[in-house]
Amino acid sequence: MGLLFAAYVILQQSEALLWDAHLVPGAGSLGAEQAQLQPDPQYAAGFVLVSAVAPGSPLDAAGVRAGDHLRFQPVWDYLRYRYRGEAVHATLDHGARRRPLELTTAARAPAGVSDTDLRSALFDLSNLIPALFGAFVMWRSRGRAIPMLLGASLVVFGLGVAAPQLWQAWPRTFLLLCGLHLATIVSVNWFLLAFAMRFAAESLGGIRRWQRATLLGYGAINLAMWAIWFYCSTHVTTLRWCGDGTIPLQLVSDLGFLASLLLLFLGWRRARVEERRRFALLLLGFSAIVLSQIIAVFVLIGQLYNTTHPLLLFAELLSGVIAPVTLSYAILRHRVLDLGFAVNRSLIFAAVSAILLIAFGVAEWALGHLLKIEGRERSALLEALLALGVFLMFHRVRDFVKPRVEWLFYHTWQENERALRHFVHEARYILKEGALAQAFVAELDRFSGVAGAALYLRSESGNYALLEGSLQGVPASIDADDPALVALRSRRALTEIQDTRSTLRANLALPMLNRGELLGFALLGPKLSGAGYRPDEQQALAFAAEQIGLDLHALQIERLLERVRSLEAGNQALHAALAVRTPLPV
Fold it and tell me: Residue 458: enclosing H or E segment and its boundaries?
């Protein structure tokens, strides 16, 4: 059901983009778009203010001018999208004189003529992005409650159109669908509060009964504020004690957002070190939403469709890009992207692109001046050959640029990896199994920044016993069928614990394999910074674990061979003693 509703929201926002681009076939207009028909609380109930009229439109032909007021029949019909050729009934108030109007919608103006349409399209796009992210989170949630709540929050946050689109704008069902849209728009704060409460419960020790009651009570208050706002908006009226309901509804919404921030802050304070980065990202995403809502308070009070204010561009950037990206990333990934790695790859890509573009331009200029090329076909052939040359040179240029960029800006990474490989080289000369295990765990701590490590080897029982470790909270023995070990045997490669159903408190499992057999493994804890392990770090760690595993296996074989030689020597001595004591028969 959640994914179906997400598809509905995405469809609505996509069609809103098409509407703003004037690409909806059969669409009609009276000469004033919805953004130009706004409720006027200072005027009579039921009348909307006309802020602009298109020349030559049905409203212009009927004598309607900017500053006049119209009362549609029914009143809420000013919100509805219309087909071309529809009959519309309204009352015109022009200079305190009222008269009835019977209008017929005409074709909408061509695209690209209105700055309002452009800003409305940006507004629709900034709502479509959270809806897409929300649908993706719900799809990846695998039925888990916390990601489902966040995905639902982003989906409902992405519905920015109060009125259903043209193909649903039937007069008889319009009010019901409009109410569903508006209810969805104002319920985002409840969904976000429920998500924050559930997520913070992981660190705060569960959701208490009074918190559940508070969430239900807040939902009821939010629903009541929505009912008032919906009634005032669709009937273009105000109430004595709350006006048109916009300010009370916005205050209730902001209260929910602030409560969500408070819960996440409390969760962040009590979370483990490796979880704090996730809470920080969630706080950033929620803060972007709250700030965008505060901007909306000052810009959109009493206005449903005013998307022309410059501050809204900033607000939509916060809520439409920063919030969904940070929230989705924080909830879908237990680890956090290393910013230095992202910058490193960006620098490499930029340098490679610049070199190839310059080479392409110089080659094209030189061939164009040195060779007399005539005809479009020959020119196209030349450009195709140049493009093929650039493609073939890409990997060579990247291999040339990558080590130099890393040496220039990230030499500490190379030094860290070089030290690890130097240790692996010297480890083969360590003669004792215990000393090698202790040295390897110490090297893993150094390489990872004291993240904590544990080394396990297979015991005679078939399970894996702890040989050496500095990682807190790991057991002394791990069953051979633990999900993490099953993944190591099946993948035969480095495995992230979070990608399995294992309960081991670690981030990485490094296999020690010999001919496909899992001899042992090393567990590595999370970095103190909260960042994840970069791909280059994972590759270096996997190499080190593989080599140390072979060294440990060699030491075990040597120990077994010494034991065998000792047993054989003892056996020979025993046979010799028995031969002396027992005389041979004559």
Answer: strand 453-458
Q: Looking at residue 305, what is its pLDDT?
A: 44
Residue 350, φ and ψ in degrees, nearest 5: -65, -40
What separation in angstroms does the CA of 249 have from each of 50, 218, 233, 236?
25, 12, 12, 16
Rounded to whole angstroms, the Cα distance separating 452 from 508 reads 11
The domain over range 28-105 is classified in CATH as 3.50.50.60: no
Report pLDDT for 375. Answer: 45
Q: How far apart are CA 579 and CA 357, in angstroms?
A: 88
Instruction: Give the 3-state secondary structure percentages of the chain, helix then strand then coil, rounded to 5.
Output: 60, 10, 25
Distance between CA atoms of residues 130 and 151, nearest Å:
9
Q: How far apart are CA 448 and CA 98, in angstroms?
A: 78
CB atoms within 10 A of CB 571: 10
Please list the rounded mean pLDDT of every run of 10 residues in the chain (586 residues).
Answer: 78 77 78 79 82 86 87 87 86 84 83 58 75 77 71 79 73 82 82 80 67 84 87 84 79 82 76 64 74 64 51 72 74 51 61 69 63 49 63 74 74 86 93 92 90 91 92 91 92 86 89 89 83 81 93 89 87 83 59
The predicted model scores a pTM of: 0.54
In 3-state terms, what secondary structure has residue 71? strand
CA Rg value for the chain: 35
Handedness of CA 530, 536, 542, 543 (dihedral sign): negative
pLDDT at 83: 83
Q: Which of 247, 197, 246 is nearest to 218 (CA)?
A: 197
Three-state DSSP class for 333? coil
> In the chain, where are the structural domains located?
28-105, 115-332, 339-409, 428-564
CATH number of 115-332: 1.20.1070
Look up the CATH number of domain 428-564. Answer: 3.30.450.40
Residues 258, 214: contact at Cβ < 8 Å?
no
In what helix (H) or strand (E) does residue 311 lie, and over which residues does it extend? helix 311-317
